[in-house]
Amino acid sequence: MAAPVPWACCAVLAAAAAVVYAQRHSPQEAPHVQYERLGSDVTLPCGTANWDAAVTWRVNGTDLAPDLLNGSQLVLHGLELGHSGLYACFHRDSWHLRHQVLLHVGLPPREPVLSCRSNTYPKGFYCSWHLPTPTYIPNTFNVTVLHGSKMMVCEKDPALKNRCHIRYMHLFSTIKYKVSISVSNALGHNATAITFDEFTIVKPDPPENVVARPVPSNPRRLEVTWQTPSTWPDPESFPLKFFLRYRPLILDQWQHVELSDGTTHTITDAYAGKEYIIQVAAKDNEIGTWSDWSVAAHATPWTEEPRHLTTEAQAPGEHPHPLPPVLSVGLRCCLALSCAFQLL
Amino acid sequence: MLACLCTVLWHLPAVPALNRTGDPGPGPSIQKTYDLTRYLEHQLRSLAGTYLNYLGPPFNEPDFNPPRLGAETLPRATVNLDVWRSLNDKLRLTQNYEAYSHLLCYLRGLNRQAATAELRRSLAHFCTSLQGLLGSIAGVMAALGYPLPQPLPGTEPTWAPGPAHSDFLQKMDDFWLLKELQTWLWRSAKDFNRLKKKMQPPAAAVTLHLEAHGF
Lengths: 344, 215
Prior knowledge:
- The structure holds two protein chains of two kinds.
- Chain A folds into three domains: 32-106, Immunoglobulin-like; 113-196, Immunoglobulins (Immunoglobulin-like, Sandwich); 208-299, Immunoglobulin-like.
- Helix content of chain A is 12%, strand content 41%.
- Chain A contains two helices and 24 strands.
- In chain A, strand 9 (113-120) and strand 10 (124-130) form a beta hairpin.
- Chain A is elongated, with a radius of gyration of 38 Å.
- In chain A, 22% of the residues are buried.
- Chain B is an all-alpha fold.
- Chain B is built from seven helices and one strand; from the N terminus they run ααβααααα.
- Chain A binds chain B through residues 122, 148-149, 168-176, 178, 195, 199, 236-239, 285-287, and chain B through 38, 41, 63, 65, 67-68, 76-81, 84-85, 176, 179-180, 183-184, 186-187, 189-190, 193-194, 197, 208, 212.
- Strand 15 (170-171) of chain A pairs antiparallel with strand 1 of chain B.
């Protein structure tokens, strides 16, 4: 007679254990995500618990001191970035998880900085943006481009997430382009816009492959060659002009040369034997602004190989040298120096 | 409404075709025309600044971005990129010639109304330079054997007393005239660049051709 009762008992106990287990370990509803402003105060209630419920709070698994509690609510003053984390409150005795908050401390966005540039004229232009100060929380940007009353598509850059590209449909337009950007996050919103003419934003990329070489037998010359930037699509119809600057490493003052065509130039007034640094910039012949300076090229003008000073012993019976060796070297040295003075 | 009596321009004496034997070809005159567009663009910058200040705000504000209303008869420089690239030489030159003929006409009208003597002087000087540009383009066209465009009957700009024009709308017309002029000068520089490249001596043309392939 006793057998069914223990079985029933076991079943009930097992069920109860299962429920308790489930309550303790079952996946809770996803933590509540909350964004709060840096420097502000926040009170986190423990879900639906009563104010006087006995609870313990933990952040990222670490217990929090009870003096931060106001009843069952967690109070945080003067939020700092370090306050971001996963906050959880537990029933004090049963350690039953009552509520979780994923707190992100951040800032609303300040006015974004927007700029546009055409380095591929006449194909199109691109616009890029950034926030002057970080918000520490995710932001979404929305860019619109207007040409007069016509809306144009700004295609996202495949690699850079703060850049998009616009293609010119028409050239030589008198109507300005207006690019607007709005940025928003959980704490706020901001926007800005810029307006410009087609011609004012043209700025090529710097020239590529700048190479400077000494010129044999010319101690004051350096030959510089470069290439038009590969991003400039049509140098035939839209030729570039170039600006070259150079100086010896030991001096601060640059020399400048402006070149209306061609991609080579020979410097003829280099200081003999000094290492030079050379850079080139490019600009459309008629419109826009100069590119940034290219990667620098270094070169030292050609110098004559120094002759070794040797004293040759005179073997007995040999004919004497027409000039004593030391004297002949000295004479050659003088001749070389006088040549150098004539060039300067 | 911009309208203009400009019969005088359309009856320029026909420039005789240059004697082709031994002449350097149209190259030097294309270069000269290119240089003139640069000179005029430079001159226009200071003239436009002065004139827009005379018109006063908002016309002299750098962000002024009005919708393009009215000024429909102004020759527009804007053109589809592919269309512009594929223009043949005759059409390219003709479009430039016609544009500047109209623009010169309107500028002369502007000059008549200008209030200060200094403005009138600057405008007159600019008009003379622009006349020079027109002559230069005509010279290139003649050298290449293209006829100067003659106005079709009915399309010749003549004075049409339009509806009463408010002061503000007149200023808007002036604004667009100067804007269009500036844009045309930029376009012409590119147009003449293209013509210059095409007129290179044969050897260089072959080199260009090869480079284009390698490009």
